[in-house]
Specification:
single chain, 75 residues, mainly alpha, Arc Repressor Mutant, subunit A, 2 strands
């Protein structure tokens, strides 16, 4: 069974900014919240159009992508 799309991009929605599929919530907003020290629950409370499953799936995909890269060193 194919996974439902997680992110969508359309010129008709926020000028092509990547958003959580089925919403107008930019993916960047989740990262901004976390960077500012806000919790995932606070993000979800402020953006109820995004499901917890969507947010967790996105974070898992980003973790997988990051860990799949090889690094010479991190200073």
């Amino acid at each position: 069974m194919p996974e439902t799309p997680l992110i969508q991009r359309s010129d008709d929605i926020l000028g092509g900014t990547p958003v959580f599929a089925g919403t107008r919530v930019p993916v960047q907003t989740l990262f901004d919240y976390l960077e500012e020290g806000e919790s995932l629950d606070e993000f979800l409370d402020d953006f109820p159009a995004v499901s917890k499953e969507q947010a967790v799936r996105l974070l898992e995909k980003m973790k997988e992508a990051l860990l799949a890269q090889e690094y010479e060193s991190v200073a």
